[in-house]
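The aim of this short unit is practical: by the end, you should be able to scan a pair of folded records and say something sensible about each. We start with the first protein, listed as its amino acid sequence and then its structure tokens.
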Amino acid sequence: MANLYLIPTTLGDTEPGNVVPANIVETVRSLRFFIVENVRTARRYLKKLDRDIDIDALEFMELNKHTDRKQLERFLHPVLNGNDTGIISEAGCPGVADPGADVVKLAHEKDIRVIPMVGPSSILLSLMASGMNGQNFAFVGYLPIPKGERQRAIKDLERRSATEHQTQIFIEAPYRNTKLLEDILQACHDETRLCIAADITLESEYIKTQTVAQWRKGLPELHKRPAIFLLHKD
């Protein structure tokens, strides 16, 4: 049986050679079938990896939040027919905060070998740079959008961090970053530490950890910038 490769991509507009190992290019060259979140951006990424790649000879299957989960098995048809296949996320590593995880789960159920490949992860890179607890942490994804619910969720994460000594990691849609930050500053105690990590691995990268009291004196401009947030209350 063929293999399912989890192929990482960049976290933004940067040269793949800066963050993606060379062996990934070799793997990509050997594949014809790809499961992707967005065909257009996946084609562009593959062309940046190898300008000589024949994009039109490749077959793409689009898997995103609109995909009918009852149809997942069709994504594995190439693998079951003996063709190595790659999964490419919109940013970072497939299967982490990514719909590709559903296909990976099904691959294990069908005894298909899953091969994760090394690449950038905003979760791990921000945790490494935060100065927070890297032995006990939780990535909780997106918080609720309504203001009241979101503030309650933030307070709950702060309590959990204090009682379990656990770093809490979460994200937001880039155009809602400012609102999220406002809620964090309103909901959290002065001494709680907050790490803001934006544009990770890009030239405009910004990573800084301060107490909530310190952040209240001034915030970075994060509107429409990919960012990730880490919270820890000692």
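Turning to the second protein, read its sequence before its tokens, just as you did above.
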Amino acid sequence: MSSLFEAIPFSENPLYERIIADIWSQKYSVVDNFFTQDEVLALRESLLLKYEEDTFRKSAIGSKTNEIVKKSIRGDIILWIDEHATNEAENMFFNKINDLKTYLNRTCFLGINQKEFHYAIYPKDTYYKRHLDTFMNDDRRRLSFVCYLNSEDWKPENGGELVLYLKDEEKIIYPFPGKVVIFESQELEHEVKVVATPRLSITGWLKTR
């Protein structure tokens, strides 16, 4: 097995190494410019186009085999993204995700071989109460991933901040465009605070079999 890995070309990626170090030490990582401004704009336009086509639906809680819509717990609307039927912006997104996944498996032996991602829109006055990104009947989610697609003039008073509940503190993360948050799905409870201005993102999970 070691000879197989030695045969595969490998170069260290400083950004990915920082993400790994962050997750190892604090169970989460925040990257301000994982996607460029142009990439964020392309993904935002893709999200808004599909929203105009009325393809979004109410979100739910529970696994895909046991989904229950509960507005009192979460209020976002979502659209699952099919990696194999994508536009140019989504192809770029999945290329970056797959590159990160491959790096994590090569360096950390995480065994990630599945993923699922969706667009998410939080309308005004919606939120998502404190929760874990794992289920009693499905614990395959290993890493949670959020990429914010809000406009460049987004301000803290627009709301919708992500709160990560750490052991001794609460980490507040504002959803500025291009920012990516990656955290351990089975370890960190989190919530989305009330939104004052519609909040746009891509959310998803890197999963084991």
